[in-house]
Amino acid sequence: MHAQRHIERHQLPSYLKVFNRVTDKPMGYIGNVSLDGLMLISQLPLLVGARFDLRLKIPGVEGARCVDFSATCQWCREDVTPGYFDSGFALVAPPAEYVEMVDALRRYFSFRSLAAST
Q: Where does the record place the PilZ domain (predicted)?
């Protein structure tokens, strides 16, 4: 029996590029994030069960800031867009920079109640 997951995820209308940390080659874009993982949208299917050393390059005023982390591919399937694949990753000991990024994205993309601001 398949159990539904109840992890809060945040969809990203503009995708952040994800790189292979060893080769510095782009792997794809983040589709959504949570504190425990992320979904990667790529042009190639990824090996389920494999551990990847990844890097995010977060754009900023003073140049890009790198967030390095390791993650294990949990699943991979074709995206609704032909020629693309979605892969779910579980993070291996997420670094503080990743947690900060998820919190910043949550704050940036969250809608706040007007009643709460008055």
A: 5-94
